[in-house]
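[retry 2/3] L,D-transpeptidase: previous attempt timed out, resubmitting with same input.
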Amino acid sequence: MGDIGRRGAIALTVTGLLAPLTLALGAAPAQAAGCTTSAGPYQKQVEKFLGRPVDGRQSAADCRAIKAFQTKHGISPNIGYAGSVTWGVMDLMNKQKAVGKNPNKAGKCPVNKGRIACVNLTLQLSWIQDGSKLVYGPVPVRTGRNGYETRTGLKKIYWRHIDHVSSIYNVPMPYSQFFDGGQAFHAVGISVWNPPGSHGCANMTTADAKKYWSLLKKGDDVYVYGRKPGT
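[retry 2/3] L,D-transpeptidase: success.
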């Protein structure tokens, strides 16, 4: 999924062909090799997030900073345009940071199960708690995209495989801990903020997946709740 905006949607590509899908989505000018000079609809918010001067005007330095962020997190096209996808990732990061060390403040993850891994789809966060005591986290996760949603409810870890490779997508899934019909916690080699999301698993950084592997065991509870933005 790429970043979308309203400006410059009607443009010819370098081959002279009109991109009808881009037009339909209202995408920013496709200048993949460089930077756009257009200010996006979330220019000020993105500037503030990146610590840039907040003036709502696109500068070359603004574009370089936005482009670097997009490249790091796999946002396409990475042309420095402050569109809805880029701001959506940043806004989620802000909300995750605001949670601090009290991820179960609303009490939605059960505290009567002993050790349990919690997944808040709305905030794309996971943590391990024991009763009301926080054991590890919260950490960012990348859950299922639209059409491949990570299923909600109370589950249990039923199989663990440290060097698993997906038989469907033929991709490595290190430190896999399966909790619901092929959906698992596992490490990924891309940003956990990479849109639009996984095929149902709860993707984690390698460090966090290793820690989950050391703290959880077969039979431990997993509770998934909320709704991932965009699903």
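[retry 2/3] L,D-transpeptidase: The helical segments are 20-25, 43-49, 60-72, 84-99, 206-215.
[retry 2/3] clearing retry counter.
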